Amino acid sequence: MTSIASPAAVAQPSAARNRLVLVVYTAAIFVSALLLFSVQPLFTKMVLPRLGGSPAVWSVAMVFFQALLLAGYAYAHFLTQLRSRVIPVAIHLLLLGFALLSLPLSIAGHWGDPPTSGYAVWLLGLFAASIGLPFFALAANNPLLQAWFVRTGHPAGPDPYFLYASSNIGSFLALLSYPILIEPIFSLRMQNLIWTGGYGLLIALIAGCGVLLLRSPVTVASLLQNDVTDAPAPRWLLRLRWIFLAAVPSGLLIAVTAHISTDVAAAPLLWVLPLSLYLLTWVLVFQSRPLLPHKWMLALQPLAIAGVVVLLAFGGEQNLALTLGGHQLCFFIIAMACHGELARTRPPAKYLTGFYVALSFGGMVGGLFAGLIAPFTFSWVAEYPILLAMAALCRPDVTERWPRLTRWYWIVLAAIAIALLVPAAMTGKVTTYLEDHRVYVAGAVGVLAALLALLLNGDRWKVFATAALALVLIRAYPADDGRIETVRSFFGVHKIVVTSDGHYHVLMHGTTIHGAQKYLNADGSKVTGRPEPITYYHKDGGIGRAITAIRERKGAPLKVAVIGVGSGTLTCAAEPGEDWKYFEIDQTMVDTASDPKYFSYIKNCAPDFKPVIGDARLTFAKEPDGVYDLIIVDAYSSDAIPIHLATEEAMAIYKAKLAPQGAVVMHVSNRHLELESVVVGIADANDMKSWVYNEDSGRDDEYIFATDVVVSAREEADVGKLASSNKWTETEPTDGERVWTDDYSNILGAVYRRLRDGE
User: Fold this and answer.
1) Quick check: 146 pLDDT over 50?
2) According to the model, what pLDDT value does residue 652 have?
3) Dist CA 243 CA 249 (whole Å)
4) How many Å apart are CA 157 and CA 143, to the nearest integer?
5) How far apart are CA 448 and CA 305, in angstroms?
6) Spatial CB neighbours of 238, under 8 Å, sequence gap ≥ 6
7) I need a surface site. Which of 236, 523, 592, 684 has the fewest CB within 10 A?
């Protein structure tokens, strides 16, 4: 009769071997996460020029990465179901090897130029064809290596979730180091080569993990597995809740990024901060001893929801730093509460890969809603308040403390809703009062939601209903008194604002004005005749003076190319007999500028307006060489600039299209980046001289603004009297400053120079 060995009788792995297992597995998971998240900004930056540098490229990229993460987790789950230990190791190493053959990273050559519509679908296909295989292989590593770790017999095997924290630390470091260290130092080609080398290192580490797994005593691993064999499988309701808990913060990540980059301020690389906080929450909740206890986050979550309600009610212009910080702090608390619930309800190690599949599926669902569905469904960033209210449902189900006091809650809330929402469709003193005090009304209801959560011990449905009412009130009584219309496309959310006195129509992206038109005179009479260009395009501003100087120098009608339509203001800067051609990537922008109810520049000054649609870097390159007297580059969408239009190679295209005495005008007004030196540098690299204009008009109340402009030309004579004007400064490149190219740019440096030099 054969005796069965007891756990004590089985030879246990040595302490040295356990340390080796822990080090190798931790290193492999860390490096994998580092590569996984560094490839996202790296490859997305390679793709950005194909779609005009639109911030939406980042959102679509995140949807792709989340979808492929789900596929990788499902693949890992399948491999862990195999009884053999050799076959999963062999299959995964073969997959990694095939992926290595597709490196270095490159854009799929057969994919071609983007279409005129359906950008998101085209972009998803481009990502799949270009980096689908290596990213898929990386995506599987985290759950797969954790499952292998369980089977090595390591003492920490029964609860391997601490390795998930290691993974997210790698992701967090990769994300933050990219704009701070990698992008300013290395060219895209060098980044690509370093990443490829890291991929090779990862394969070696994973091979080491496989060897350690295969050399583990089968008896030890079997005993460890038997410890959790009797653990019941998670119920489907729990699995669905995991999906919901992962979907809400994933969607909020994209929604809050969209909000602060379109409705508050489009600070450069602003998307990095919410994503970094998102990753940090995963690090914190899966620690053995969480630095921020889950019960604290649950207590703070209603206050965070109320805080966002107040921030949305106030708007973003009062204090940008406070507003941006407030939105992200509240997002961090809400994400911590959701992810903390996931950590609290995580299953035994036996069901680890299934748990990660649910997490990745939820992340993909949230990303799809906020990144793809919402932009085509809503004309504003409606997904933000929707997901904010849904966050209240992520709270655990608990018993109310004082049910007798709250049994009338739904009746009272319905009465409040009727009392506050019915006047929104009416006129009179009640409506006026609510509009004037909307911040206090919405804020009071939001704070009520927080107090209910605390007093009622966190009843999630009541918190949800109260928060939803507060958010609806903000929409019912907007700060603009209904004078704002929004237009949303793949390239962002634009607002058409009628000023309170009705004198101006203003085109805005976030808090940045992109054009305006005067509709009423000071006496209230309607402006008639040919509209006067204002904002940055006034005749006394930098762009207006540059046009006049080139026109006078030539002494004949100009042939002009304009990159960027905006509100169509520059159509009225053209004179009879001149040939002006426009290039614009966003069809909705053309439709808005062409609609007389918004702006009448095009109707009055260019009734036959037919711009070239598509990314100007691609469409303008097809223009004949040596024909344009003036090229005006004014394509910046809010403060998120299309970098590929401000590189040495881009300036080479502009120069090639110029007539023998032509000039390039670059509009570089920006609150967050100093771009004058960038343009001077790329012009000098093409043997061109540059003159800078940055004078304040002092007429902001008339919507005539300060404008930063750089004019570049082959010779001084090409810019006429502009070269001798005391309002223009001939500027040389800054010593030691690296020229921006298609392979290198340094956004952080431009931010630093703006902070250093001030506005």
Assistant:
1) yes
2) 95
3) 11
4) 13
5) 11
6) 345
7) 523
- Look at residue 667 and give its three-state secondary structure: strand
Sign, CA torsion 210/212/218/224: negative
**Rounded average pLDDT over 576-600:** 90
The matching CATH number, chosen from 3.40.50.150, 3.40.50.720, 1.10.287.1080, 3.40.225.10, for 542-757 is 3.40.50.150
8-state DSSP, 234: P
Residue 229's pLDDT band (boundaries 50, 70, 90)? low
DSSP-derived secondary structure letter, 644: G
3-state class (DSSP) for residue 341: helix
The separation between CA 750 and the C-alpha centre of its own chain, rounded to angstroms, equals: 19
Structure token pair of residue 218: 């089968």
Rounded CA-CA distance 199/334 in Å is: 34
CA distances from 673 to 269, 328, 541, 630, 743 (A): 11, 22, 20, 25, 19
* Structure tokens belonging to residue 151: 């089977």
Q: Return the SS3 of 380.
A: coil
With contact defined as beta carbons under 8 Å apart, do 719 and 550 qualify?
A: yes
At 87, list the tokens: 């076959």
Q: Where are the domains of the chain?
A: 13-230, 542-757
**492 confidence band (pLDDT: 50, 70, 90):** confident
Residue with token string 């107040």: 310
Task: Answer for the pair 248, 123: CB distance below 8 angstroms, yes or no.
Answer: no
Among 295-299, 492-496, 501-505, name the one with the lowest average pLDDT. 492-496
The C-alpha atoms of residue 573 and residue 550 are separated, in whole angstroms, by: 13
Q: In terms of CATH architecture, what is 13-230?
A: Up-down Bundle (1.20)
The count of C-alpha atoms lying within 13 angstroms of the C-alpha of 707, restricted to the half-sphere facing its C-beta, is 30
Residue entry with tokens 């069965």: 4
Q: What is the DSSP string of 398-416?
A: ---S-HHHHTTHHHHHHHH
Phi then psi for residue 490, to 5 deg, are -60, -25
